[in-house]
Specification:
By secondary structure, the protein is α/β, with parallel strands linked by helices. It has one domain: Glycoside hydrolase/deacetylase (TIM Barrel, Alpha-Beta Barrel). The chain is 39% helix and 13% strand. It has 12 helices and 10 strands. Strand 3, helix 5 and strand 4 form a beta-alpha-beta unit.
Length: 293
């Protein structure tokens, strides 16, 4: 059904109108995760032809200085720091695409696993695990031979050497330490994940960290306060919508492109029309939570 919807929104002209009218004076943040180099070349090429791609820091500088940004400005982001991100470096360099990758600071540079990618047995339980207290989630994951501190035989995240090679072309930022669901964490755990991640990325990897992407797009008032207290300049959500120079910097909106496999899907998702129409019909389970654990 999704493919039919993408085709309908593209060939009816809805996505084109949305891109050329609705997005014209907006700043659109796009989210990718684990895209391969072939898809990246196609997707980046489309975005470069139809949008003005800017870096995250270009947007933040414009907010500070009140500078005008180009029409149809797009910020490209990746969450997690998957090993496949390294294969995109030649494409990023060749096409001169500013990209921000949000790293899980205690997983990159190690043989630790992302809890949601540890093995196939966990996959059917992921959504349920996101909805329980952090301590219970970690306890349940032990049944699947997973511990967030354990080192495994294979790597799922970027190595320290890969990150160092990418630094001249990629803006690396924080995605917490271990990718928990922040509103499900108690105060101590949330503080460690938000503040500790920034410190770790700066001290171990020599990065300048000014942005946090909330894992799974879940966050609460407490998490925003911790993000501000840690010295971040912004917090990135997965709330559907566009940004401008007056947007709340700690609730910046973003569209998940989900590593689009064809131009039709990318065109529709990048315009934002698909997510906004979908969310009007069915409110997502992730996003802002009024309270935490």
């Amino acid at each position: 059904m999704s493919n039919i919807a993408y085709m309908a929104l593209r060939w009816s002209g809805v996505a084109w109108v949305w891109r050329e009218a609705v997005q014209r004076r907006k700043v659109t943040f796009l989210l990718f995760h684990d895209m391969d180099a072939t898809d990246a070349e196609r997707n980046f090429g489309y975005l470069k032809r139809h949008y003005n791609i800017i870096g995250l820091n270009d947007y933040l500088d414009a907010v500070k200085d009140g500078k005008r940004l180009p029409n149809k400005a797009v910020v490209i982001t990746f969450d997690d720091g998957h090993t496949s991100n390294y294969t995109l470096l030649p494409v990023i360099k060749q096409m001169q695409i500013p990209v921000t990758i949000f790293l899980c600071s205690s997983i990159v540079g190690t043989h630790r696993h992302f809890w949601f990618r540890h093995n196939t047995e966990i996959k059917p339980q992921i959504e349920a695990l996101k909805k329980i207290a952090n301590g219970r989630r970690l306890e349940t994951l032990r049944q699947y031979d997973f511990s967030q501190e354990q080192e495994y035989g294979d790597t799922q995240a970027l190595s320290k050497e890969q990150i160092e090679k990418m630094i001249p072309w990629v803006n690396f930022q924080s995605h917490t330490c271990f990718h928990p669901i922040l509103p499900q964490c108690n105060d101590t755990a949330a503080e460690k994940e938000i503040i500790g991640s920034k410190r770790q990325l700066e001290e171990v990897f020599g990065l300048t960290v000014n942005a946090l992407s909330y894992p799974n797009g879940d966050y609460s008032t407490r998490d925003i306060s911790l993000t501000q207290a840690a010295g971040y300049e912004c917090g990135i959500t997965v709330d559907s919508g566009y940004n401008n120079l007056k947007s709340n910097l700690f609730r910046l909106k973003r569209f998940s492109v989900n590593d689009a496999k064809n131009t039709t899907e990318l065109m529709v998702k990048a315009s934002g029309c698909y997510a906004l129409l979908k969310h009007w019909l069915h409110k997502p389970s992730y996003g802002f939570k009024a309270s935490h654990e």
